[in-house]
Amino acid sequence: MTASVRDDLLAAGLIVFDRVGFEAATVAAIRTRARASNGSFFHAFGSKKELAGALFLEVLRHYHAAVLAALDPEPDAEQGIDRLIRAHLDWVVTSRREARYLFEISRSEWGEEVRDAQRAQNARLADGIERWRAPLVANGELLPMTPVMFVSQLIGPAQIFCRAFLSGRDRVDPRVEADTLIACAGRALRPPERINRT
Predict the structure, then answer these.
(1) What is the mean pLDDT of residues 125-139?
(2) 197 burial level (CB within 10 Å; 0-12, 13-18, 19+)
(3) How many CA within 13 A on the CB side of residue 131?
(4) How many CA atoms, within 13 angstroms, populate the side-chain half-sphere of residue 174?
(5) CA distance to 99, 110, 133, 177, 185, per residue, from 85 (Å)
């Protein structure tokens, strides 16, 4: 089996899961969408659940890559906060199907089998952010706090708008709130005397 067959099955799975949800999705529907045989499916994945877990890791990798790209070239504190929030919002809007899968569809009950791989990917993201953040904390550009608290203050408020957008509760592009979200994150993450008030 070629890598392209596996990729076709993952892409088909994403579309089918997005349309009908994980429970209603069938291997037959995924195979039909991918134009793959039954044998090809089961050569690549042992079950629908296994495909769903592999898809979760693939989408998570794409999301993390988009976030980390915002830190290259390395920005100062103000630029970094701005770029990271915009990267999150942009990825959600431009990769809406993937974002829905990552934040709305993926399920903990089938995720147990990929939990270690997920932790490893999350650790790589955290390390990338921390390499940028730690020197800025040390020189007083960013407030000291745990990495988890930092990310929650940075992305948490944006995620509220993103979830409403992804679920269809709000049709407004969440990027329209970018400037306000960035300003609020700056006040939460930077010492008051370091915030650019212009």
Answers:
(1) 97
(2) exposed
(3) 10
(4) 29
(5) 15, 29, 14, 10, 9
Distance CA 100, CA 137 (A): 33
The 10s digit of each residue's pLDDT in 175-192 is 999 999 999 999 999 999
Phi then psi for 104, rounded to 5 degrees?
-120, -35
Q: Which of 141, 130, 140 is nearest to 79 (CA)?
A: 141
How does pLDDT run across 28-59, given as a tens digit for each residue?
A: 999 999 999 999 999 999 999 999 999 999 99
Peptide bond before 73: cis, by omega within 30 degrees of 0?
yes
Is the distance from CB of 178 to CB of 96 less than 8 angstroms? no
**Against a cut of 0.85, is the pTM above it?**
yes
Closest among 148, 49, 47, 63 to 100, alpha carbons compared: 63
Compute the C-alpha angle 101/61/185, nearest 5°. Answer: 80
